[in-house]
Amino acid sequence: DESVLSSSDEEEEEEEEEQEQEARSEEDLLREVASLSSPPCRVAELQGKKYLKISSRELKRLPAGVLLLPSLQELHLGSNRLKSLAALSALTSLRHLDLDNNKLKDVSALSTLTSLEKLWLDNNRLKDVSALSTLTSLEKLWLDNNRLKDVSAL
What we know:
Blueprint: H1 2-35, H2 40-47, E1 51-53, E2 74-76, E3 96-98, E4 118-120, E5 140-142
């Protein structure tokens, strides 16, 4: 019985260590993306990244390092304080983009992201989304709780 208990305890400890390591790795990645101070071998690894979540971090602008990630297909930037999206226009591989719960007023920078299939823009300050009419691959679009009066352009 004693050996079963210690084995179970060891498994729990290993699992906790793995979770902590994953959390540290994600934090390291976010720091590197934000600062662009990655060693060249790490930059190559980052450039192949397809998924990135930088939600709920009180960001007022996009980390410059996001531009180093041209392979990104899914980017989560929800629940920040973003006002501008200019840097996103270069990420043309994006298929899913979460920008809900920010302070966005203008989405014209997204008009180049023609691979987008899902776009979350709910809970922002948008009045005009006509620039999104170029997003011909878009399958789902969330616009709840904005200041929109007319979406006929879509």
